[in-house]
Amino acid sequence: MSNEKVVIDNVSYSYKEDKKTQESLDAIKDVNFTVNEGEIVTIVGPSGCGKSTLLDIISGMLRPTKGEVKIDGNRVTGPGKDLGIVQQGYALFPWRTVLENIEFGLEIRQIPQKERREIAKKYIRKVGLGGYENKYPDSLSGGMKQRVSIARAMSYKPKLLIMDEPFAALDPRTREVMQNELLYLSRSEKPTILFVTHDVREAVLLSDKIVVMTGGPGSVKAIIDVKFPEERKIEDIVTLKEFDELEKKIRKLYGNPNEIPNDAVF
Amino acid sequence: MEKELKERKQVARIFRNLIPIIIFLVIWELCPRLGILNKNMIPPFSDAIVALKDMIVSLEIFRHLGWSLYRAVLGFSLALVIGIPLGTAIGWNEKIREFLSPLLTLFGNVSPIALFPFFIIVFGIGEVSKIGIVFWGCLWPMFMNTISGVSHSDKALIKAARTMGASKKTVLFSVVIPNALPEIYPGIKLSVSNSILMLCAGEMLGATAGLGYLISYSQQIFEMSKMYASIIIIALLGLAFTAILNTVEKRVFAWKFNNEK
Ligand SMILES: Nc1ncnc2c1ncn2[C@@H]1O[C@H](COP(=O)(O)OP(=O)(O)OP(=O)(O)O)[C@@H](O)[C@H]1O
Ligand SMILES: [Mg+2]
Predict the structure, then answer these.
(1) For A4-82+160-265, which CATH superfamily applies?
(2) What ipTM did this prediction achieve?
(3) Which positions fall inside the ABC transporter domain (chain A) (predicted)?
(4) Closest CB from B162, B259, B261 relative to A79
(5) Which residue, judged by its Cα, is nearest atom 31 of ligand 1?
(6) Which of A58, A154, A225, B134 is the most buried (most CB within 10 A)?
(7) What pLDDT, on a 0 to 100 scale, did the predictor assign at position A84?
(8) Which residues of A have a CB under 8 Å from any CB of B?
(9) Structural domains of chain B, ranges and CATH numbers in brackets
(10) Contact at CB, B261 and A134, closer than 8 angstroms
Protein backbone atom coordinates (compact mmCIF):
# COMPACT_ATOMS: atom_id res chain seq x y z
CA MET A 1 0.00 0.00 0.00
CA SER A 2 1.24 3.42 -0.84
CA ASN A 3 0.47 5.14 2.45
CA GLU A 4 2.65 2.90 4.57
CA LYS A 5 5.30 5.20 5.97
CA VAL A 6 7.25 2.86 8.23
CA VAL A 7 7.21 -0.92 7.93
CA ILE A 8 8.86 -2.89 10.70
CA ASP A 9 9.37 -6.34 9.30
CA ASN A 10 10.34 -9.10 11.71
CA VAL A 11 12.98 -7.03 13.44
CA SER A 12 15.23 -8.48 16.14
CA TYR A 13 18.17 -6.88 17.87
CA SER A 14 20.77 -8.22 20.27
CA TYR A 15 23.32 -6.06 22.04
CA LYS A 16 26.80 -7.44 22.07
CA GLU A 17 26.93 -7.52 25.81
CA ASP A 18 30.44 -8.11 26.97
CA LYS A 19 33.78 -8.02 25.23
CA LYS A 20 35.09 -10.65 27.60
CA THR A 21 32.22 -13.10 27.95
CA GLN A 22 31.00 -12.65 24.37
CA GLU A 23 27.48 -12.93 25.70
CA SER A 24 24.79 -11.01 23.92
CA LEU A 25 21.45 -9.71 25.06
CA ASP A 26 18.27 -10.05 23.02
CA ALA A 27 16.72 -6.63 23.37
CA ILE A 28 13.86 -7.16 20.90
CA LYS A 29 12.66 -10.20 18.99
CA ASP A 30 10.48 -10.54 15.89
CA VAL A 31 8.77 -7.18 16.04
CA ASN A 32 6.24 -6.44 13.30
CA PHE A 33 4.04 -3.42 12.76
CA THR A 34 3.29 -0.70 10.30
CA VAL A 35 2.88 3.02 10.69
CA ASN A 36 0.80 4.74 8.07
CA GLU A 37 1.49 8.14 6.65
CA GLY A 38 0.25 10.95 8.90
CA GLU A 39 -0.59 8.67 11.81
CA ILE A 40 0.34 9.09 15.42
CA VAL A 41 1.48 5.74 16.74
CA THR A 42 2.52 5.25 20.34
CA ILE A 43 4.53 2.44 21.82
CA VAL A 44 3.82 1.55 25.43
CA GLY A 45 5.45 -1.12 27.54
CA PRO A 46 7.38 -1.71 30.72
CA SER A 47 10.84 -0.28 31.29
CA GLY A 48 13.59 -2.23 29.55
CA CYS A 49 11.33 -3.92 26.99
CA GLY A 50 13.30 -2.43 24.11
CA LYS A 51 11.30 0.65 23.11
CA SER A 52 14.32 2.92 22.79
CA THR A 53 16.21 0.19 20.99
CA LEU A 54 13.39 -0.12 18.47
CA LEU A 55 13.36 3.65 17.90
CA ASP A 56 17.13 3.59 17.35
CA ILE A 57 16.65 0.94 14.69
CA ILE A 58 13.90 2.90 12.97
CA SER A 59 15.99 6.06 13.01
CA GLY A 60 18.88 4.17 11.43
CA MET A 61 21.27 4.46 14.36
CA LEU A 62 21.30 0.69 14.95
CA ARG A 63 21.28 -2.05 12.32
CA PRO A 64 18.80 -4.83 13.15
CA THR A 65 20.43 -8.19 13.69
CA LYS A 66 17.47 -9.74 11.89
CA GLY A 67 14.67 -8.40 9.72
CA GLU A 68 14.46 -4.93 8.25
CA VAL A 69 12.83 -1.55 8.55
CA LYS A 70 11.48 0.22 5.51
CA ILE A 71 10.69 3.91 5.35
CA ASP A 72 8.78 5.05 2.25
CA GLY A 73 9.47 1.62 0.81
CA ASN A 74 13.26 1.90 1.16
CA ARG A 75 15.28 -0.24 3.50
CA VAL A 76 16.81 1.83 6.29
CA THR A 77 20.61 1.65 6.31
CA GLY A 78 21.52 4.87 8.14
CA PRO A 79 19.99 7.99 9.64
CA GLY A 80 17.27 9.22 7.31
CA LYS A 81 17.33 12.64 5.71
CA ASP A 82 13.86 13.69 6.78
CA LEU A 83 13.74 12.67 10.38
CA GLY A 84 13.27 14.44 13.67
CA ILE A 85 14.02 12.73 16.95
CA VAL A 86 13.53 13.63 20.57
CA GLN A 87 15.73 11.46 22.75
CA GLN A 88 15.03 10.32 26.27
CA GLY A 89 18.02 12.29 27.60
CA TYR A 90 17.18 15.48 25.62
CA ALA A 91 20.66 15.51 23.99
CA LEU A 92 21.01 19.28 23.81
CA PHE A 93 24.33 20.79 22.80
CA PRO A 94 25.55 22.43 26.02
CA TRP A 95 27.72 24.95 24.20
CA ARG A 96 24.78 26.27 22.20
CA THR A 97 22.05 28.52 23.54
CA VAL A 98 18.39 27.49 23.38
CA LEU A 99 18.03 29.43 20.15
CA GLU A 100 21.21 27.96 18.63
CA ASN A 101 20.17 24.45 19.62
CA ILE A 102 16.89 24.84 17.79
CA GLU A 103 18.69 26.30 14.79
CA PHE A 104 20.93 23.25 14.39
CA GLY A 105 18.67 21.25 12.09
CA LEU A 106 17.88 24.39 10.11
CA GLU A 107 21.59 25.10 9.69
CA ILE A 108 22.08 21.64 8.25
CA ARG A 109 19.29 22.37 5.81
CA GLN A 110 21.17 25.55 4.87
CA ILE A 111 18.34 27.88 5.69
CA PRO A 112 19.66 31.46 5.69
CA GLN A 113 20.54 32.91 9.07
CA LYS A 114 17.73 35.47 9.25
CA GLU A 115 15.00 33.01 8.36
CA ARG A 116 16.52 30.47 10.72
CA ARG A 117 16.30 32.92 13.62
CA GLU A 118 12.65 33.61 12.86
CA ILE A 119 11.67 29.95 12.64
CA ALA A 120 13.57 29.09 15.82
CA LYS A 121 11.92 31.96 17.68
CA LYS A 122 8.49 30.85 16.49
CA TYR A 123 9.06 27.37 17.91
CA ILE A 124 10.48 28.75 21.14
CA ARG A 125 7.18 30.59 21.60
CA LYS A 126 5.21 27.46 20.68
CA VAL A 127 6.84 25.46 23.47
CA GLY A 128 6.42 28.33 25.91
CA LEU A 129 10.07 29.25 26.33
CA GLY A 130 9.88 32.89 25.24
CA GLY A 131 12.56 34.87 27.08
CA TYR A 132 14.89 31.88 27.33
CA GLU A 133 16.37 32.21 23.81
CA ASN A 134 19.86 33.04 24.97
CA LYS A 135 20.13 30.70 27.94
CA TYR A 136 22.50 27.76 27.90
CA PRO A 137 20.88 24.33 28.47
CA ASP A 138 22.73 23.73 31.74
CA SER A 139 20.69 26.47 33.35
CA LEU A 140 17.32 24.96 32.35
CA SER A 141 15.08 22.55 34.24
CA GLY A 142 14.44 19.04 32.90
CA GLY A 143 11.03 20.00 31.53
CA MET A 144 12.45 23.06 29.79
CA LYS A 145 15.24 21.02 28.22
CA GLN A 146 12.66 18.56 26.99
CA ARG A 147 10.71 21.35 25.33
CA VAL A 148 13.85 22.67 23.63
CA SER A 149 14.49 19.19 22.33
CA ILE A 150 10.93 18.97 21.00
CA ALA A 151 11.17 22.39 19.36
CA ARG A 152 14.48 21.41 17.79
CA ALA A 153 12.97 18.28 16.26
CA MET A 154 9.86 20.08 15.00
CA SER A 155 11.53 23.22 13.66
CA TYR A 156 12.61 21.80 10.31
CA LYS A 157 9.29 20.03 9.77
CA PRO A 158 10.49 16.47 9.31
CA LYS A 159 8.11 14.05 7.62
CA LEU A 160 8.76 11.51 10.38
CA LEU A 161 8.96 12.48 14.05
CA ILE A 162 10.30 9.93 16.50
CA MET A 163 9.98 10.81 20.15
CA ASP A 164 11.09 8.88 23.21
CA GLU A 165 8.95 9.85 26.21
CA PRO A 166 8.90 13.44 25.04
CA PHE A 167 6.57 14.72 27.76
CA ALA A 168 7.83 12.66 30.68
CA ALA A 169 9.54 15.53 32.49
CA LEU A 170 6.70 18.03 32.12
CA ASP A 171 4.24 19.16 34.74
CA PRO A 172 0.60 18.16 34.01
CA ARG A 173 -0.42 21.58 32.77
CA THR A 174 2.52 22.02 30.38
CA ARG A 175 2.14 18.44 29.31
CA GLU A 176 -1.43 19.05 28.23
CA VAL A 177 -0.39 22.16 26.31
CA MET A 178 2.29 20.13 24.53
CA GLN A 179 -0.12 17.30 23.79
CA ASN A 180 -2.53 19.72 22.16
CA GLU A 181 0.36 21.28 20.29
CA LEU A 182 1.27 17.85 18.97
CA LEU A 183 -2.29 17.18 17.83
CA TYR A 184 -2.33 20.58 16.15
CA LEU A 185 0.98 19.86 14.43
CA SER A 186 -0.34 16.50 13.34
CA ARG A 187 -3.35 18.14 11.71
CA SER A 188 -1.52 21.05 10.13
CA GLU A 189 1.74 19.55 8.88
CA LYS A 190 0.61 15.94 8.77
CA PRO A 191 3.93 14.39 9.77
CA THR A 192 4.03 10.75 10.74
CA ILE A 193 4.62 10.55 14.48
CA LEU A 194 5.96 7.62 16.40
CA PHE A 195 6.38 8.00 20.07
CA VAL A 196 7.05 6.14 23.27
CA THR A 197 5.24 6.87 26.47
CA HIS A 198 4.72 5.23 29.84
CA ASP A 199 1.48 7.07 30.23
CA VAL A 200 -1.43 4.91 29.03
CA ARG A 201 -3.82 7.83 29.20
CA GLU A 202 -1.51 9.90 26.99
CA ALA A 203 -1.28 7.04 24.52
CA VAL A 204 -5.06 6.80 24.25
CA LEU A 205 -5.45 10.56 23.93
CA LEU A 206 -3.00 11.03 21.12
CA SER A 207 -2.73 7.91 19.04
CA ASP A 208 -4.33 6.46 15.99
CA LYS A 209 -2.69 3.20 16.92
CA ILE A 210 -1.13 1.86 20.11
CA VAL A 211 1.57 -0.78 20.08
CA VAL A 212 1.76 -2.57 23.41
CA MET A 213 5.12 -4.25 24.03
CA THR A 214 6.25 -6.69 26.67
CA GLY A 215 9.72 -7.46 27.87
CA GLY A 216 12.13 -10.37 27.96
CA PRO A 217 12.91 -10.22 25.02
CA GLY A 218 10.91 -7.25 23.81
CA SER A 219 8.08 -8.12 21.48
CA VAL A 220 4.67 -6.81 20.44
CA LYS A 221 1.84 -7.99 22.66
CA ALA A 222 -1.02 -6.19 20.99
CA ILE A 223 -1.77 -3.50 18.46
CA ILE A 224 -4.86 -1.43 19.15
CA ASP A 225 -6.54 0.95 16.75
CA VAL A 226 -7.94 4.07 18.31
CA LYS A 227 -10.86 5.80 16.64
CA PHE A 228 -12.01 9.15 17.92
CA PRO A 229 -13.70 12.02 16.12
CA GLU A 230 -11.46 13.77 13.59
CA GLU A 231 -10.85 17.04 15.42
CA ARG A 232 -9.43 15.81 18.67
CA LYS A 233 -9.38 18.08 21.65
CA ILE A 234 -8.06 16.63 24.85
CA GLU A 235 -10.76 18.28 26.97
CA ASP A 236 -13.47 16.62 24.83
CA ILE A 237 -11.97 13.18 24.46
CA VAL A 238 -11.52 12.54 28.16
CA THR A 239 -15.29 12.81 28.62
CA LEU A 240 -16.04 10.04 26.08
CA LYS A 241 -17.12 6.61 27.26
CA GLU A 242 -14.87 4.92 24.69
CA PHE A 243 -11.89 6.68 26.19
CA ASP A 244 -12.39 5.06 29.58
CA GLU A 245 -12.94 1.61 28.09
CA LEU A 246 -9.83 1.84 25.95
CA GLU A 247 -7.73 3.02 28.82
CA LYS A 248 -8.88 0.11 30.95
CA LYS A 249 -8.22 -2.37 28.16
CA ILE A 250 -4.66 -1.19 27.65
CA ARG A 251 -3.92 -1.05 31.34
CA LYS A 252 -4.88 -4.70 31.52
CA LEU A 253 -2.56 -5.59 28.63
CA TYR A 254 0.23 -3.48 30.03
CA GLY A 255 0.06 -5.29 33.33
CA ASN A 256 0.04 -3.55 36.64
CA PRO A 257 3.60 -2.56 37.47
CA ASN A 258 2.72 -2.56 41.13
CA GLU A 259 1.30 -6.06 41.01
CA ILE A 260 2.84 -8.30 43.65
CA PRO A 261 3.74 -11.77 42.40
CA ASN A 262 1.77 -14.62 44.02
CA ASP A 263 4.83 -16.23 45.50
CA ALA A 264 6.20 -13.05 47.02
CA VAL A 265 7.38 -13.52 50.57
CA PHE A 266 7.73 -10.70 53.05
CA MET B 1 25.51 51.24 42.29
CA GLU B 2 25.77 47.48 42.20
CA LYS B 3 28.49 47.62 39.60
CA GLU B 4 30.52 49.97 41.74
CA LEU B 5 30.22 47.60 44.66
CA LYS B 6 31.37 44.72 42.50
CA GLU B 7 34.38 46.67 41.30
CA ARG B 8 35.31 47.61 44.83
CA LYS B 9 35.09 43.97 45.88
CA GLN B 10 37.34 42.99 43.00
CA VAL B 11 39.95 45.57 43.96
CA ALA B 12 39.83 44.28 47.53
CA ARG B 13 40.37 40.74 46.30
CA ILE B 14 43.38 41.73 44.22
CA PHE B 15 44.89 43.41 47.29
CA ARG B 16 44.27 40.33 49.38
CA ASN B 17 46.05 38.19 46.79
CA LEU B 18 48.99 40.59 46.75
CA ILE B 19 49.60 40.44 50.52
CA PRO B 20 51.56 37.17 50.65
CA ILE B 21 53.61 38.25 47.64
CA ILE B 22 54.44 41.56 49.31
CA ILE B 23 55.44 39.76 52.52
CA PHE B 24 57.70 37.46 50.51
CA LEU B 25 59.35 40.41 48.76
CA VAL B 26 59.89 42.22 52.08
CA ILE B 27 61.60 39.13 53.51
CA TRP B 28 63.70 38.86 50.36
CA GLU B 29 64.67 42.51 50.73
CA LEU B 30 65.46 42.40 54.45
CA CYS B 31 67.22 39.06 54.96
CA PRO B 32 70.28 39.84 52.80
CA ARG B 33 70.45 43.39 54.20
CA LEU B 34 70.37 42.17 57.80
CA GLY B 35 73.01 39.56 57.05
CA ILE B 36 70.63 36.61 57.59
CA LEU B 37 71.29 35.48 54.00
CA ASN B 38 74.57 35.79 52.10
CA LYS B 39 74.32 38.96 49.99
CA ASN B 40 76.66 37.52 47.35
CA MET B 41 74.36 34.57 46.74
CA ILE B 42 71.04 36.27 47.26
CA PRO B 43 71.15 40.01 46.78
CA PRO B 44 68.16 42.04 48.03
CA PHE B 45 65.08 42.31 45.85
CA SER B 46 65.79 45.97 45.12
CA ASP B 47 69.18 45.06 43.61
CA ALA B 48 67.42 42.67 41.23
CA ILE B 49 65.01 45.45 40.28
CA VAL B 50 67.89 47.86 39.62
CA ALA B 51 69.57 45.22 37.43
CA LEU B 52 66.29 44.72 35.63
CA LYS B 53 65.95 48.47 35.06
CA ASP B 54 69.49 48.64 33.68
CA MET B 55 68.78 45.81 31.26
CA ILE B 56 65.62 47.54 30.13
CA VAL B 57 67.38 50.88 29.64
CA SER B 58 70.21 49.26 27.69
CA LEU B 59 67.59 47.27 25.74
CA GLU B 60 69.59 44.13 26.49
CA ILE B 61 66.60 42.35 27.97
CA PHE B 62 64.54 42.75 24.81
CA ARG B 63 67.02 40.82 22.74
CA HIS B 64 66.81 37.88 25.13
CA LEU B 65 63.07 38.16 25.59
CA GLY B 66 62.66 38.30 21.82
CA TRP B 67 64.65 35.16 21.24
CA SER B 68 62.87 33.28 23.98
CA LEU B 69 59.44 34.33 22.78
CA TYR B 70 60.34 33.39 19.24
CA ARG B 71 61.39 29.87 20.28
CA ALA B 72 58.47 29.37 22.65
CA VAL B 73 55.84 30.60 20.21
CA LEU B 74 57.28 28.70 17.28
CA GLY B 75 57.68 25.44 19.21
CA PHE B 76 54.21 25.76 20.71
CA SER B 77 52.52 26.65 17.43
CA LEU B 78 54.11 23.71 15.64
CA ALA B 79 52.90 21.42 18.41
CA LEU B 80 49.42 22.95 18.17
CA VAL B 81 49.02 22.62 14.41
CA ILE B 82 50.34 19.06 14.46
CA GLY B 83 49.04 17.78 17.81
CA ILE B 84 45.42 18.81 17.57
CA PRO B 85 44.58 17.66 14.03
CA LEU B 86 46.56 14.46 14.50
CA GLY B 87 44.99 13.87 17.90
CA THR B 88 41.55 14.43 16.40
CA ALA B 89 42.22 11.95 13.60
CA ILE B 90 43.48 9.30 15.99
CA GLY B 91 40.74 9.91 18.56
CA TRP B 92 38.06 9.72 15.87
CA ASN B 93 39.24 6.39 14.48
CA GLU B 94 38.76 3.67 17.04
CA LYS B 95 40.86 1.04 15.28
CA ILE B 96 43.90 3.26 14.83
CA ARG B 97 43.51 4.55 18.38
CA GLU B 98 43.47 1.11 19.91
CA PHE B 99 46.42 0.03 17.82
CA LEU B 100 48.58 3.04 18.68
CA SER B 101 47.55 3.57 22.27
CA PRO B 102 50.31 1.49 23.96
CA LEU B 103 52.99 3.26 21.95
CA LEU B 104 51.51 6.69 22.63
CA THR B 105 51.23 6.01 26.35
CA LEU B 106 54.90 5.01 26.33
CA PHE B 107 56.02 8.13 24.46
CA GLY B 108 53.84 10.42 26.54
CA ASN B 109 55.48 9.13 29.68
CA VAL B 110 59.06 9.80 28.60
CA SER B 111 60.12 13.01 30.32
CA PRO B 112 61.06 15.46 27.57
CA ILE B 113 64.04 16.54 29.66
CA ALA B 114 65.39 13.00 29.49
CA LEU B 115 65.37 13.37 25.70
CA PHE B 116 67.71 16.38 25.68
CA PRO B 117 70.80 14.34 24.84
CA PHE B 118 68.90 12.74 21.99
CA PHE B 119 67.93 16.12 20.55
CA ILE B 120 71.48 17.38 20.85
CA ILE B 121 72.97 14.32 19.18
CA VAL B 122 70.47 14.40 16.33
CA PHE B 123 70.01 18.14 15.79
CA GLY B 124 73.17 19.62 17.32
CA ILE B 125 73.01 22.57 19.72
CA GLY B 126 71.52 25.02 17.22
CA GLU B 127 68.04 26.49 16.88
CA VAL B 128 66.47 23.30 15.55
CA SER B 129 67.35 21.47 18.70
CA LYS B 130 65.97 24.15 21.03
CA ILE B 131 62.74 24.63 19.12
CA GLY B 132 62.47 20.87 18.80
CA ILE B 133 62.69 20.49 22.57
CA VAL B 134 59.97 23.08 23.12
CA PHE B 135 57.87 21.41 20.42
CA TRP B 136 58.22 18.02 22.04
CA GLY B 137 57.33 19.27 25.50
CA CYS B 138 54.27 21.10 24.14
CA LEU B 139 53.11 18.32 21.87
CA TRP B 140 52.17 15.60 24.32
CA PRO B 141 49.69 17.28 26.63
CA MET B 142 47.69 18.71 23.72
CA PHE B 143 47.98 15.57 21.64
CA MET B 144 46.93 13.14 24.37
CA ASN B 145 44.09 15.31 25.65
CA THR B 146 42.76 15.73 22.12
CA ILE B 147 42.78 11.99 21.50
CA SER B 148 41.01 11.37 24.78
CA GLY B 149 38.46 14.18 24.36
CA VAL B 150 37.55 13.23 20.81
CA SER B 151 37.20 9.55 21.66
CA HIS B 152 34.93 10.26 24.64
CA SER B 153 32.38 12.20 22.67
CA ASP B 154 28.81 12.06 23.87
CA LYS B 155 26.94 9.39 21.87
CA ALA B 156 23.55 11.00 22.40
CA LEU B 157 24.76 14.28 20.91
CA ILE B 158 26.21 12.51 17.88
CA LYS B 159 22.93 10.66 17.51
CA ALA B 160 21.01 13.92 17.69
CA ALA B 161 23.15 15.48 14.97
CA ARG B 162 23.15 12.42 12.72
CA THR B 163 19.38 12.06 12.85
CA MET B 164 18.97 15.75 12.04
CA GLY B 165 20.78 14.94 8.82
CA ALA B 166 24.31 16.08 9.67
CA SER B 167 27.14 14.69 7.53
CA LYS B 168 30.12 13.00 9.17
CA LYS B 169 32.11 16.19 8.64
CA THR B 170 29.46 18.34 10.32
CA VAL B 171 29.29 15.89 13.19
CA LEU B 172 33.06 16.16 13.62
CA PHE B 173 33.29 19.94 13.48
CA SER B 174 29.98 20.91 15.07
CA VAL B 175 29.64 18.23 17.70
CA VAL B 176 32.71 16.11 18.40
CA ILE B 177 35.27 18.91 18.54
CA PRO B 178 33.20 21.38 20.59
CA ASN B 179 32.35 18.48 22.87
CA ALA B 180 36.05 17.64 23.28
CA LEU B 181 37.23 21.22 23.83
CA PRO B 182 36.77 21.20 27.61
CA GLU B 183 39.26 18.34 27.69
CA ILE B 184 41.58 19.72 25.01
CA TYR B 185 41.93 23.11 26.66
CA PRO B 186 43.65 21.96 29.87
CA GLY B 187 46.11 20.17 27.59
CA ILE B 188 46.79 23.46 25.83
CA LYS B 189 47.34 25.17 29.19
CA LEU B 190 49.79 22.50 30.27
CA SER B 191 51.59 22.82 26.94
CA VAL B 192 52.02 26.53 27.44
CA SER B 193 53.58 26.09 30.86
CA ASN B 194 55.73 23.29 29.46
CA SER B 195 56.91 25.62 26.71
CA ILE B 196 58.50 27.99 29.24
CA LEU B 197 59.98 25.11 31.18
CA MET B 198 61.52 23.44 28.16
CA LEU B 199 62.65 26.77 26.81
CA CYS B 200 64.65 27.67 29.93
CA ALA B 201 66.22 24.26 30.14
CA GLY B 202 67.05 24.22 26.42
CA GLU B 203 68.60 27.69 26.49
CA MET B 204 70.75 26.82 29.48
CA LEU B 205 72.33 23.97 27.59
CA GLY B 206 73.77 26.00 24.83
CA ALA B 207 72.66 29.31 23.41
CA THR B 208 73.96 32.81 22.90
CA ALA B 209 70.72 34.57 23.66
CA GLY B 210 67.46 34.00 25.47
CA LEU B 211 66.23 34.20 29.04
CA GLY B 212 67.49 30.73 29.97
CA TYR B 213 70.90 31.68 28.59
CA LEU B 214 70.80 34.94 30.51
CA ILE B 215 70.16 33.10 33.76
CA SER B 216 72.98 30.62 33.37
CA TYR B 217 75.39 33.19 31.94
CA SER B 218 74.78 35.66 34.80
CA GLN B 219 75.35 32.88 37.24
CA GLN B 220 78.62 31.94 35.56
CA ILE B 221 80.00 35.48 35.67
CA PHE B 222 78.57 35.86 39.16
CA GLU B 223 76.19 38.74 38.46
CA MET B 224 73.55 37.53 40.86
CA SER B 225 71.25 40.57 40.65
CA LYS B 226 71.04 40.09 36.90
CA MET B 227 70.28 36.41 37.34
CA TYR B 228 67.37 37.13 39.67
CA ALA B 229 66.18 39.88 37.35
CA SER B 230 65.96 37.31 34.55
CA ILE B 231 64.08 34.92 36.80
CA ILE B 232 61.59 37.69 37.58
CA ILE B 233 61.09 38.26 33.84
CA ILE B 234 60.39 34.57 33.32
CA ALA B 235 57.90 34.56 36.17
CA LEU B 236 56.15 37.60 34.67
CA LEU B 237 56.11 35.92 31.28
CA GLY B 238 54.41 32.89 32.84
CA LEU B 239 51.86 35.15 34.55
CA ALA B 240 51.12 36.92 31.28
CA PHE B 241 50.57 33.62 29.47
CA THR B 242 48.28 32.42 32.23
CA ALA B 243 46.27 35.63 32.09
CA ILE B 244 45.86 35.32 28.33
CA LEU B 245 44.84 31.66 28.61
CA ASN B 246 42.27 32.43 31.29
CA THR B 247 40.77 35.25 29.26
CA VAL B 248 40.49 33.00 26.22
CA GLU B 249 38.96 30.27 28.39
CA LYS B 250 36.25 32.61 29.66
CA ARG B 251 35.32 33.47 26.09
CA VAL B 252 35.50 30.01 24.54
CA PHE B 253 33.71 28.34 27.42
CA ALA B 254 31.23 31.11 28.06
CA TRP B 255 28.57 28.40 28.36
CA LYS B 256 30.37 26.93 31.35
CA PHE B 257 30.79 30.20 33.19
CA ASN B 258 27.49 31.89 32.37
CA ASN B 259 23.84 30.98 32.28
CA GLU B 260 23.20 32.93 29.14
CA LYS B 261 24.88 34.50 26.18
N1 LIG C 1 23.89 0.10 24.77
C2 LIG C 1 23.40 -1.02 25.32
N3 LIG C 1 24.21 -2.09 25.52
C4 LIG C 1 23.74 -3.23 26.05
N5 LIG C 1 22.46 -3.42 26.42
C6 LIG C 1 21.61 -2.38 26.24
C7 LIG C 1 22.03 -1.14 25.68
N8 LIG C 1 20.96 -0.31 25.64
C9 LIG C 1 19.92 -1.01 26.15
N10 LIG C 1 20.30 -2.24 26.50
C11 LIG C 1 19.44 -3.28 27.05
O12 LIG C 1 18.40 -3.54 26.12
C13 LIG C 1 17.16 -3.68 26.77
C14 LIG C 1 16.16 -2.69 26.21
O15 LIG C 1 16.59 -1.38 26.51
P16 LIG C 1 15.80 -0.10 26.03
O17 LIG C 1 16.60 1.10 26.42
O18 LIG C 1 15.47 -0.24 24.60
O19 LIG C 1 14.47 -0.19 26.93
P20 LIG C 1 13.23 0.81 27.03
O21 LIG C 1 12.02 0.02 26.71
O22 LIG C 1 13.49 2.02 26.24
O23 LIG C 1 13.22 1.16 28.59
P24 LIG C 1 12.78 2.53 29.32
O25 LIG C 1 11.30 2.56 29.29
O26 LIG C 1 13.29 2.36 30.70
O27 LIG C 1 13.41 3.64 28.58
C28 LIG C 1 17.42 -3.50 28.24
O29 LIG C 1 17.47 -4.79 28.85
C30 LIG C 1 18.76 -2.86 28.33
O31 LIG C 1 19.47 -3.31 29.45
MG1 LIG D 1 13.80 3.97 26.68
Answers:
(1) P-loop containing nucleotide triphosphate hydrolases (3.40.50.300)
(2) 0.85
(3) 6-240
(4) B162
(5) A48
(6) B134
(7) 93
(8) 56, 59-61, 79-85, 87, 89, 91-97, 104-105, 108-109, 134-136, 138-139, 152-153, 156, 162
(9) 64-252 (1.10.3720.10)
(10) yes
